[in-house]
């Protein structure tokens, strides 16, 4: 569980710091690869408009900040 929380924390910081201009599908694939490499299972990543009700934790920002990637367990 500690690894999971650490992974999500790192992804959220890294995702927002360097991915603002990235295409959402590319960033989503990168985040999924990192989660898979850490052994996280049973999750979904969803691309939604910024500010929309997503029901999960925002782990990345893409397309110049207009959309976010939401992690759901």
**Quaternary organisation:** single chain
N-to-C SSE string, H for helix and E for strand: HHEEE
Q: What is the average per-residue confidence, as pLDDT, rounded to a whole number?
A: 84
Structure classification: alpha+beta
- DSSP summary, beta strand count: 3
Are there runs of 5+ residues with pLDDT below 50, and where?
none
| Biggest sheet overview | 3 strands, antiparallel
* Count of folded domains: 1
**How big is the Rg?**
11 Å
Q: What proportion strand?
A: 15-25%
Distance between the termini: 12 Å
Organism: Pseudomonas reinekei
Protein name: DUF1161 domain-containing protein
Keywords: Signal
Task: Explain the overall architecture.
- There is one protein chain.
- The chain is of the alpha+beta class and 73 residues long.
- It has one domain (2-72).
- 42% of the residues lie in helices and 25% in strands.
- It has two helices and three strands; from the N terminus they run H-H-E-E-E.
- It has a three-stranded antiparallel sheet.
- The model has no long low-confidence stretch (mean pLDDT 84).
- InterPro entries: DUF1161 (IPR010595).
